[in-house]
Specification:
The protein is 51% helix and 9% strand. The chain is elongated and about 70 Å long. The chain is mostly helical and 134 residues long. The protein has 2 domains: 3-37, no CATH class; 49-132, 434 Repressor (Amino-terminal Domain), CATH 1.10.260. Helix 1 packs antiparallel against helix 2 (70-77).
């Protein structure tokens, strides 16, 4: 593509980042050019964020019903999985799975909760009560 034809379609990442593309300049040489995106990529990104938002809402509902602990909500909200949470907290995956049970979560010490709050960047009070974040 030519340098002046680099796509600049709006996307969900407009305010955060631009993408480097290769284009041909006026003299026929390849150069890098910043692009804010193109329609197809923007549509795909929108579908992905819709899916993430549905997972967050489902996790929130499960927490409010008492089926899961608030940790499940924050894992979805921060777009993480058990491997990532394990790596940052130092807990084994099976331990995190136990912490997803409300009966276990309610018995966790503040020092254990602090590892989660550091990761999710919330206070212990916010971790225990997800309605403070809504």
């Amino acid at each position: 593509m030519k340098k002046d034809e680099t796509p600049q379609d709006p996307s969900g990442l407009n305010n955060f980042t631009k993408e480097v593309c290769y284009a041909v300049d006026e003299s026929g040489k390849y150069v890098t050019q910043l692009s804010s995106g193109w329609e197809v990529k923007s549509d795909a990104l929108g579908i992905t964020w819709d899916d993430i938002n549905k997972k967050v809402e489902a996790a929130k509902n499960a927490v409010l019903k008492g089926e899961l602990s608030p940790i499940a909500y924050y894992i979805e909200l921060r777009v993480m999985d058990l491997t990532i949470v394990s790596a940052y907290t130092g807990f084994w995956k099976w331990t995190i799975k136990r912490h997803l049970k409300p009966s276990i979560f309610n018995k966790l010490s503040n020092s254990t909760l602090q590892k989660y709050t550091d990761l999710f960047e919330v206070s212990i009070e916010q971790l225990k009560n997800i309605s403070l974040n809504a």
